[in-house]
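Sample intake sheet
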Amino acid sequence: MLAKAFIPYGAYWSSPFCRWQGSLSGQHSIELVAEVARERLATRAIDPARLDGLILGMSVPQRDSFYGAPWLAAMIGAPTITGATISQACATSARVIASAAAEIELGQKSCVLGVTADRTSNGPHIYFPDPNGPGARGTSTDWVWDAFSRDPHAKNAMVETAEKVCAETGFTREAQDEVTLLRDRQYRDSLADDRAFQKRYMAPVLVKRGKKTIVDVSADEGVHETTAEGLAKLRPAMEGGTVTFGTQTYPADGNAGIVVCDGDTAASLSTDDKVKIRVRAWGEARTDKGMMPKAVVPAARDALRRADRSIGDMKAIKTHNPFAVNDLYFCREMGLAHDAINHFGSPLVYGHPQAPTGTRLVLELIEELVIAGGGYGLFSGCAAGDTAMALVIEVS
C-alpha cells in the first residue's frame, strides 16, 4: 500500500465534456488545457513555481505534440520543469496518476501536476511514406477512427469486444438497456440543485482572443436524455448483435488535471485541511484476446490486493464503461448491485474523450467520498488491447 502520495482537496479539475464535433472540436488540446490549467491554478492560489514535476497524458496527437509536457509546462508558467508525455489509450489517466504517485513515493518529486487532454474531433490523418510501394505510394491511417475500428492484435473493432462478452456471458439487449437507463438517472443526480455536484470539480472553459470569445462552455455538451422507448427503437450497431448506439459511449473532447504531492505540500495547498486524500494503490490487467470489457475485473482485484482491501471495503466505486456490458460483467463478477456503482455519472452517458476520462471519474470518486464522510474508493476502467487499470483512493 502506498503511504506518501496525497492529492490536495480541490487541487484538480475536469472541463465539461463536449460531444465530438462540438464546441471544443476546433481547439488544440494542449493549448486549450494550458489555458484551463493556468486559470484553475490561479483560482486555487497554487503558484506554478510550487510544481517540481508535470506529466501530460494524451492519446490523440496534435500539432507540435512532440514537445508534450515541456511545452505545456512553459505555457502554464512553469518553464523550469519537465516530465513525461504518456499515452495508454483509455488507461492514460490512471497511468498518469499512478506515475505521479510513484514519483512522490520514491521521493523523486514533492508536487506533480498530472494533466490529461484529448480531442477526438477532427482526428489527424497520418500518411506514412513508402519508397518501396507501387509508384512509391505510401500508406495512411485515420488515427481516431482506425483505432476504434481495428485492434491489430485481436483483429476486431471495439464494439466487437462488447458483443463477444455478451455472447459468452448471455447478457441480453434488455439487460444492457436497463443498466443504461440506470446510468442516465445517476447522471441526472449530478445536475440537481443547479449542477451542485458537478460544480465541486468542473472547470468552465472560456477562451478569448482579444475581445472575441472563441469558446464558452460551462457544462457537458451533447448529452441526450435516455428513455426506454428511445433505446427500444435503436438497431444493433452490428448486424445480429445486441449492442446499440444507445448502450455504448461516444467520442468527445475535454481535459482534466490533478495535483499529486507529499503530505506537507498537500496540507498547504488543500482548500480544506480537514480532508486528506491519498492514492493507496494501482493495478492493471490484460484479459482474453478480443474481450476488452472483462479486463476491468482483474485490474480492480489487482488494485484491491495491493491496497490490502476488499470490494466490501469500498464506499464508492466508479468504472470507465464504454459499453453497458462492462458494468453488467463487473457487477456480476464483483458481487455488486448495478446501482452500487457510478453514482453521479459515467462515460456511458457523458462521453469519452479518452485520456481525461479516467481523471474525471477519479475526481467524482473523491467528491462522492467526501460527501459520504470519507472512506475507500475504487476506480477501474478498460482500455485498448484488452487491458485495464484501476486505482484505490482513500479520503479521510
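Comment: The CA atoms of residues 13 and 201 lie 5 Å apart. The two ends are 16 Å apart (CA to CA).
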